[in-house]
Amino acid sequence: MREVAIVSAGMTPFGELWRYSLRDLFVEASLGALRQAKADTVDAVYVGNMSGGQFVGQEHLGPLLADHLGIRGVPITRVESACASGGVALRSAFLDVASGMSDLVLAVGVEKMNDGGDVTNVLATAADQENEVYHGITFPGLYAMIARAHMTQHGTTLEDLAAVSVKNHRHGALNPKAQFRQEVTPEQVMASSLVADPLRLLHCSPVSDGAAAVLLCPLARAQEFTDRPVEIRASGLATSSMALAERRDPAFLDAVSLSASRAYHMAGLGPADIDVAEVHDCFSIAEICVLEALCFAEQGRGGEAARTGETALGGRLPVNTSGGLKSKGHPVGATGIAQVIEIFEQLRGEAGERQVKDAAVGLTQNMGGSGGSSVVHIFERV
C-alpha cells in the first residue's frame, strides 16, 4: 500500500443554514479544498451522507453532485454508516489512494437536516427497528440508558456529564465555524430541559446543516499541492451489535475499542502517542465512554477527564478542541470529515486560539448509532 496524505481542506459553517441546499453545501466545501490545493479536478470522490433521501428527498447523489461541482464524469460514491458516514467516506478515499487505483481523491461529508424531515424518526433508522425503535426508543433514550449503566457501574455523576458539555462549549466558542459559539456553566447544563433522564438538552448535540471536504493524494506527490501535508497513518473500522440490549456491557463501546485497536496496530502507535483527538460526543456520555474505549482513560474513569481538566486545552490530552459535536454541530454525514479537518489544522499549526502546542500526532473517532459502528483514524504531521 502507498502512503497517503491530506493536502487541503474546505468546510462550511455548521448550523441552521436555511439559504443553502444540500448541493450548495457540498460544492462550497469541495471547492474550498480544491482551491486550497490549486487543483481543478480529481480522480474520484467519496461522499459521506446518512440520509439525503429522508431529510431532503434526494437520493442518487453521485451524478447530482458531480454535475454541480463541475466534474461531470468523475466517479462519485456515496458512503453510509449512519453518523459515521463521513469517517467511513474518508476511509474509502484513503484505501482508493493507498491501493494505487486513484491519485487525487476528495472525501466529503454533507447533511441537510433542517429542511423538513422528521429528524427524530430519520435518526432512529440508525437503531434496530424491530428490537428498539418499534418499542418507542429514540437516540436520547438509548444514550440515557448508556449513561445510567455507566453511572451505576462506575459512579459517574451528573457533574461529570456536565463537565463534558462545559469543556466543549469553551472550545467551540473559539471556533468560527461552530454552530454554538458560547460558553455554558455547569449550572446551566444541569438546569436545561430534561430530554431523557439523566440527559438534558445541554448534554445533547444539535440538529445541524453543513459540509466538510479534504483532498487526499499519495504522500510522494503531496509537495505538488502543499508544503505542509498531513499523513494518514492508520484507519480502523469495526461494528458491534446494533441493539444496545444485545451487547455484553452497554456502558462499554466495544466497536470503538476494536476500531481503535486496529488503528493503533496499523500505525504502530498507542494511546500515549496521541497529542490531540476529536471524538464522537453526540451526547456527553458518549465522550466519556469513547475515552475509555480508546484507552485514553481507564474503564470507569472517563467521567473524571473533563472535570479535572485532562481533556481541555492545556490539559494532558486535549479532546474535541473544535467544540465537538456538542458545540461545533452535528450534520451527521459531515461530522467525520469535520473532525479530520480539526486534526489537519492542529497538526499544521493553523488552529488559532484552539491550537495545541507542538501537536504532531492526532486521532479521530467517528461513530454510528449507539456504537453499532466506529471508525478511527490516526494522523501525523509530515
Structure characterization notes:
- This protein is α/β, with parallel strands linked by helices.
- The chain has two domains: 4-119 and 207-224, Thiolase/Chalcone synthase (Peroxisomal Thiolase, Chain A, domain 1), CATH 3.40.47; 126-205 and 233-381, Peroxisomal Thiolase, Chain A, domain 1, CATH 3.40.47.10.
- It has helices at residues 22-37, 52-55, 61-69, 85-99, 119-124, 139-154, 158-172, 186-191, 254-267, 284-293, 302-307, 324-328, 335-347; strands at 4-11, 44-48, 76-79, 105-112, 194-196, 199-200, 209-218, 230-239, 276-278, 361-368, 373-381.
- The strands form two sheets. The protein has a nine-stranded mixed β-sheet with strand order 3-2-4-7-1-8-11-10-9, with helices on both faces. It has a two-stranded antiparallel ribbon with strand order 5-6.
- A hairpin with a 4-residue loop joins strand 10 and strand 11 (373-381).
- It is globular, with a radius of gyration of 19 Å.
Beta-strand content estimate: 15-25%
Secondary structure tally: strands = 11
Radius of gyration: 19 Å
Unreliable residue runs = none
Shape: globular
